[in-house]
Amino acid sequence: MIQLKDLVERFPQLFTETIGDLTKQIQGIQSPDFANSHDLVFLATPKAIEAGLKSKAGALVVPTKAKAVATEHAQGRPILVSPNPEKAMALAINAFFRATPYTNKQITGRHPTAVIDPSAQIDTSARIAPHAFIGANVTIAANAYIGANAVIEDDSKIGEATVIHPNVFIGHSTE
């Protein structure tokens, strides 16, 4: 659970204006159709804005162009105005709501059965599970987890603290 002000303070560049009570407690992020009074909804498209304003969501993130209509129909709910609600949602989920997936804490470093091209650049804190395949010129950042039997093709980049679940295929040149 977080307060809206925590989100705004963490990512001030993503919110150009705030309206309402930023001490509102938020338990999660949800789509407008399933939101309740403890959820935050990110509304980027006209259809999502319409659904979000009719929803039971506790707080709204709207694009700058929808500020006026959101303010008119918010029914006292806090509003965060963002030039890029999609980016704000991705960062909010990652920073505050991402459930820590099961990543087999017994796996440390590179499992001996993993196939790793010698040109791959893998941070020493990354964990590579059994039978994973890491292609040429792949970059894997700090604290990433590559699950068993995962395939990461050539020239791909895996970001910090990314979790690639078992049996996932990442195509070449993916970032």
Please give the order of strands in the largest beta sheet. 2-7-6-5-4
Q: How many DSSP helices?
A: 4
Radius of gyration: 20 Å
Helix content estimate: 10-25%
Instruction: Kindly estimate the percentage of residues that lie in beta strands according to DSSP.
Output: 15-25%
Structural class: alpha/beta
Main sheet properties: 5 strands, mixed
Q: Could you say which overall geometry the principal axes of the C-alpha atoms support?
A: elongated
User: What is the H/E order?
Assistant: EHEEEEHEHEHEEEEEEEEEE
**How widely separated are the two ends?**
30 Å
Number of beta strands? 17
What's the overall average pLDDT, rounded? 92
Q: Uncertain runs with pLDDT below 50, 5 residues or more?
A: none
Tell me what the structure shows.
The chain is α/β, with parallel strands linked by helices and 175 residues long. It is built from four helices and 17 strands. The chain has helices at 4-10, 46-54, 67-73, 85-97, and strands at residues 2-3, 17-19, 25-26, 28-29, 39-42, 59-63, 79-82, 115-116, 121-122, 127-128, 133-134, 139-140, 145-146, 151-152, 157-158, 163-164, 169-170. The strands form five sheets. It has a five-stranded mixed beta sheet, sandwiched between helices. It has a four-stranded parallel beta sheet with strand order 8-11-14-17, with no helix packed on it. Helix 2 links the parallel strand 5 (39-42) and strand 6. The radius of gyration is 20 Å and the shape is elongated. It starts with a strand and ends in a 5-residue tail after the last strand.
